[in-house]
Amino acid sequence: MWAHKGILRLAPSVALVGCAIVGAVSRLHGQTVLPRAHPLEPIGAISEMLASHRVVAVGNVEFRGNEQCQAFLRSLVRDSRFLATGTDIVVEFGNARYQPLIDRFVAGEDVPYGDLRQVWQNTTQIEWEWDLPIYEEFFRTVRAVNASLPRQRQLRVILADPPIDWSIVRSKAALDSVAITREDYAARATQREVLAHGRRALVIFGAGHLLRHPASSNQRANGLVDRLESEDGVIVFTVIPEVRRNLTTLDSTASSWPIPSFVSLRGTSLGAAHWTTPDGRVTPALQDQADAILFLGSPSSMTSARLSPALCADSVYMAMRSSRLALLPPPPGAPMSPVDLLRSSCGR
Questions:
Q1: Domain map of the chain by residue range?
Q2: Per-residue pLDDT tens over the stretch 168-214
Q3: Residue 173: half-sphere exposure toward Cβ, Cα within 13 Å
Q4: Are the beta carbons of 124 and 3 closer than 8 angstroms?
Q5: Fold (CATH) for 26-299
Q6: Could you tell me the pTM of the whole model?
Q7: What pLDDT, in 10s, does the model give residues 338-347?
Q8: DSSP string, 97-117
Q9: Contact predicate 270/46, CB 8 Å
Q10: Which of 95, 194, 247, 261: disulfide with 39, CB 3.0–4.6 Å?
Q11: Helix/strand/coil for 170
């Protein structure tokens, strides 16, 4: 990825994984034939997983602000089945430095907007993904949900991006010294703020942070789920959206799955499948990387959020974002600079 999130350069999409599913296993010519994956209604399935796991992690699609993913997440936190079990939501798209501020906001207190937007604008991520209106809308959805709940049942949002102070960051080295701690900080925050209090968490992070990395894999080890499971003895149930690759290439029945669907993959033919990357590498089996797929529709049906015209017209915001983008050079051969790409996004 260019910078930290990959808006500026599209990283190869990542594969997904699975959990146990009931189905007959047959044999063909002496070989085991695994059952097909079976789609389930997703909110009920995720709520059930949260009842049996203290942490359920759902991938956020950080691909130019995927609207389908965020719409599903808002529907999830509004649903009474989730609210019956969930207590905390750990998110990547907020600077932990502002935890007291977001606590007040989701509890219904008045918070000046100029203060509130620092939560998502001042993270370690120099790109503008979190500035897209879908992330602010998520926080406002939690606030609206809490307004209908008694104080003891209200949801808490845990900001899990490290507490960077941009007033003292002047170089890439200073940024990197904080950004490199992101997964470690998120794991410690989940342990400290959720697990240590006997609570349960919905963790919302980019899918790449949630994939397990088998020992035989060449991918980066010690992701967020790896850290939680190895350091805290917690079994995390992971649900990863796949919106960039066509699942029908691995399972022809995917074209008939309801939208959205939850697909547990452990012990299924889809769970045992592999993706082949553009450079010819074969990924680990899907079920070795995560526990379920969240199916949101075909890649061609996905839509992207845009920066608001008001934000694009805000000279203070544009100067801030441009100065941060300047900390990292574009990759070789990039068609335009990061700042030009930001202006282009605003122009669209």
A1: 26-299
A2: 999 999 999 999 999 999 999 999 999 999 999 999 999 989 998 75
A3: 0
A4: no
A5: Rossmann fold (3.40.50)
A6: 0.88
A7: 888 899 888 7
A8: GGHHHHHHHHTT----HHHHT
A9: no
A10: 261
A11: coil
